[in-house]
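Bug report

Summary: structure tokens for histidine kinase differ between web form and batch submission.
Environment: batch mode, default settings.
Steps: 1) Submit the sequence below via batch. 2) Compare with the web form result.

Sequence submitted:
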Amino acid sequence: MRKYILSQTIYLLLFILFITCKAAAQPVCQIQHFSAYNGLAQRTVTNIVQDSKGLIWFSTWNGLNKFDGYTFKNYKAFPGDGSNLTSNRLSSITQTQTCDIWCQTYDLRVYLFDTRSEKFIDVLRPYENQSKQTYAVRTIYALPKGISWILCEQEAFRIDELSCKEGEGITLYSPEQKNLKGSHIITVHQDSEGDEWILTDKGISIIGKKKIESDIPFKSIKENNGKIYLISDDNQLVIYTPQTQQLQFNEAPFLSSNTINSMQNLGKDSIGLCTDEGLYIFFAGEGRYRLIDPRTSTKPSPKVLSVFKDHHGELWMFGDTPGVVRYNLVTEDKQHYITPKEDLPNAERVNRDFIFEDSQGTLWMVPHQGGFCYYDRRNRQLKPYYTDYDNPNSKYNPNILNYFLDRQGNLWFCNTWDVTKISFFPHACHLQSIDTGFETRAFLIDKEKNLWTSTKKGSVRIYRTDGSLKGYLTPEGTISPNPVSFTKNIYCFMEDEEGIIWMGSKQDGLFRLERTGENRFKIRQFTHQKDDPYSLSYNSIYTIFQDSKNRIWVGCYGGGLNLIEETQEGNIRFLHSGNKLTGYSKDRFAKVRYITEANQVLLVGTTEGLLTFSSEFTQPEQIEFYRNIRIPDKVSSLCSNDVIYIYTDSRKDTYVLSFTGGLNKILSENLLSNEIEFKTYTTQNGLPSDLVESMIEDNKGNLWIIAENALACFHPDKETFEHYDKKYLQQDLYFTEAAPVQSQHHQLLLGTDIGILRIFPEQLQKSSYVPPIVFTGLKIQGASQDLDIDDLKELKLKPSERNVTFQFAALDYIDPQSISYAYRLKGLEENWNEVDNSRSASYINLPPGDYELQIRSTNSDGVWMESGTRVLPIIVLPTFWETYWAWILYAFLFIVSTATIVYIILYIYRLRHRINLEQQLANIKLRFFTDISHELRTPLTLIASPVTEVLEHETTLSANARKHLTLVHKNTERMLHLVNQILDFRKIENKKMKVLLEKTNVVVLLEKVMDNFRLIAEEKNINYQLQTNQEIISAWIDQDKFEKIIFNLLSNAFKYTPANKSITVHANVEGDKLIVSVADEGIGIDPKKQQTLFQRFETLVKYNILQPSSGIGLSLVKELIELHCGSIEVKSQPEVGSEFIVTLPMGQEIYETHENTEFILNDGASTETDNEIDEVSQDMPMDTDKVDPISILIVEDNMELRSFLHTILSENYKVIEAINGQEGLERAQEHVPDLIISDIMMPVMDGLDMVKNIKENREICHIPIILLSAKSSLDDRISGLEQGIDDYITKPFSATYLKARIKSLLHQRKQLQDILWKQWSEKQESPVAPSIDISPSQPQITPFDEQFMQQVMEVMEKEMDNSDLTIEEFAQKLNMGRTVFYQKLKSIIGLSPVDFIREIRIKRAVQLIDSGEYNFSQVAYMTGFNDPKYFSKCFKKQMGMTPSEYKEGKK
């Protein structure tokens, strides 16, 4: 029983091995399925065709499908789409020469699918409508010349494929039309000259140049070598010679009862006749027949239905019995092949017979009633195809109902469920599976050309030169034909010059095999011995090498480098770093991977870098080692230190392969250096992987680089790489570190994790197929276009179609996903845009012009095909504005525009020049008037002030004198009004005029202004009145400016209105607007003059000769109204009258965003009232009897005004004069006056600069200052107050008001002195004087004054008990003169220095007495009094009691 089980097990193992070997030798195919799950419209495919562009078309039961290698597109009739298609179930399709598709439906109708418009055309519909009958289509013939024949039951249609879509080029052929001999057409054929042969049941009809005079029916036609061969119904071979146009009946060596089933071309002048009695070959050149009998012992029937001749000249005959017969014409060897039952497909329907040869020369077929298989010509066997090499149950048995071979050599076939595509690849690789799951680790081809191989399973196999297994190496040294394990993992082989084989193992040391006989070796093992320093340094050996000096080197993976040395006694010892190899560092280079030699230099690959040393040495101790490692910042250094393999090719170039570091080519000639230069190749240079393991050169000089999971062919001359993946290697596998070898048959043997991979380099090549590129879609402005872009000769884009996307595909059906694309738009760009597998090109905002879209691609092997570049001319039409006409127009417009601009610039320049001149004149006028106005203010002051003084104080004036003085005063006021108007103009022009808005009763203000003209109205008997619709009208206005507006309008009204007329002022409210108008019955204004009425210096001179005008009144009115955000208009008729209408906003909101606008409260007059002045005068009577009168410094450049001020002030004050700011500053420093009155506009130094210098001088900064100026604006006042002045009075001024302001300031100064004295005396111990908040109109204590008083108090504290203290010493301690000290102290606190010292000392005495610790004498001395009696006298004078009385009162 055990023997039976063992025998069965061995049988099973051998069977699996046999099947695996067969699978490993089978052709390389790629099988891909397409079904409804990945885009096919329906699973049942009835027919497959390829059009002239290369697109694949499928007819299904759900319409027509187009396939471009990536996507399917379905065409059929949809509800409401207007299609003529009566049924979506297609039974057959035929391609035309125009790239359209004939579609035959299940209901026997035919339609032409126009691939450009993507619509179905019912070409026979017009004939059916005309004849009122339906034509049932049997078959369709599409001839190469562009003519199609549609065969029906009794007739046929000849169709011109180009014109039929337009309803033309369709001809009906039938006996009734007398253009066809028979009603039943057997076949249609086009010969080499383009003539059409129509074989009918009643003879042949020829359309073309040839003619035939015969009514004999024929059933088959073939053309061979310029002759036409026909088979008649009675099974005769007939030959038609075009030159003679005669039929020649050839006498066949068989009876007419022998049916000819088919006729085949079997070569030049060779015709094969497949008959019921065998295959007859007619050799036309010799005029003889040869009978091939297909019968064998397994095939008794002689019947032949079809025949195929392969490229080896062998015939394959298909009959009516299962199988196929192979026949060799030379050897007459024949063999019958039948598909075993287990290889037949499990399907309801029988496979269709077919046979073909792929591009690799492999013959594929389905024998009659058989299964899918290929012919193994070496073994002369039909073999099934296995989809999995390692699985004997993976036979591929498809059910083939229909098949098609495309132009690329791919096989497409249909079955019940889907469509299958099989692509065929070069049969360049043979995978021999051994010890599956264990790596093949080492190879050796010995001197007898035997192949030695080892695996990690522990087996060592030896193969003969023919590839057959010689046997297994046993531990005893014999070669056994039975599987035997060597029990050791052999990692490397080496055969030395003496034929001794060395084997290095992992963990088991070194083995030496010496041949002792046929298939017998003496094995000697060497291992590391701890007690023997000359033993092997380590037991793991990865490499063994014999150099040019026949020295043998052993590389240990853990023990470093070993040199084998044989002693005179024949013993072997190992030299290494532990004994004589002293120059070798075992600690750093312990792990050696590979040893080789190049140019008398030994190269050692280690995990720590590359070592080199010369082979020219006599003693091992003399060896000098050089190390090359990776240097991070050096490009020419090694890419990685882990050197795994070293190879020198036939060009003497040496390559160093580093683990994860790619390929390193040595560039340096001197290898005995620590700075060898390398050129590195990595994935960045095209290497498929940086994890390279080994390399080898083929017989053509190409270098094959083995990576972990990829194979690359390196062309050193071009420095290019070709990758070969699992598509070529048959399946997923991993390469091992086994050093590859080349067999005598030029095979490359590579180690894998499955077994031995045998490669034929000359057969492993990239495909040269050039895939055609088609356009599959076009998007314009993001919308897909219903346009057949692929057939366009050029594409024109409208100006509105500048954003386009082109979609395309390269028709390589082997592996479309591996195709890469590149495109460029020539004319816009020169560089190619490489987009990998993306199949679209987009351009945005294309400029107008002529372009050429170029698209190129690789094939499925990644080879770029320059010759297959697809080109599409593109014209982007310009808008009119981008045409040459537009550029001409642009140039014309540019010239015109430039000329116009130049003209306008010159005109504007002249205009500006005139305007500038006029502006300069106006500015000169205005500046002149302004300067004059400033100058007039001083004489006006000298006129107005004395007149006012006389009118107010002189009571003895006569009535006539008072009348005249009153007239003088009135005209002075009028002149001041005119002067102010000129100054207002200047401020408006400089944008310095501010609007001070306050809530005002407009009616009251109007009455006040109108009162100024009552007297004139009475004198001229003018009806003068105010009319308003409300008693009180409140509005936000600037009272001063509003008065000027109304005053000017009334002034003009009275000026131009004759006596006994009327002047009416209207004030009304309309919404949020205030409407004020001044209407008169004067002379009126001419309409032409009205347009310039508000211009500056514009007057009505001819109407107003007796009352001259400055021409600025109405212009000023308009400017002031615009400052109020209002408007003015005039209505006037000559000799009737005029009305000026002013419109102003009443609210305050409109002014809030204006810069020069301020809002003020209406709380009374802006200046001091007379009552206030009187009150101040009463509260502050002047004491003229004082010893030290109050001094006032007057700084004025006008002598008369200065004299006038001296006159009115000298009665009560000491007056000091200065004529300019510089002199005023000097006088102030000299005299330290109590008050300064100054003008602003003065020579040398103006008033403001003088004020600034005074306030910065700590000795005189306390002096109050009043400024007098003709500048009356608010800005001028603010700028003065910012300098620290105490009051600002505008010229002309009232003398009474000036004196009242002086008294008020001095009174406020006195109050401030009292307050300060009280605070300083009460807090005299505090180092810092109090800070007093004083209003701007009062004299202020500046920081300098506070510092001064603080210094004074500090000196007083120190000198409190100094009875000899004098005023001069006190002033010196403050760095001041006696006079300045006196004046400053008196002006701040109102006390002289003597009184100040006495007051302070008495207050200190009071403090001391209150303490109760001192007697009166001590107190006196402590407070600076030498005499207690004098102290008591002074105490009583200040306190009102003696010190004793004070002390008693405290008790």
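Above is the batch result. After comparison, the two runs are identical; trailing whitespace caused the diff. The two ends are 149 Å apart (CA to CA). Residues 884-953 form the longest helix (70 residues).
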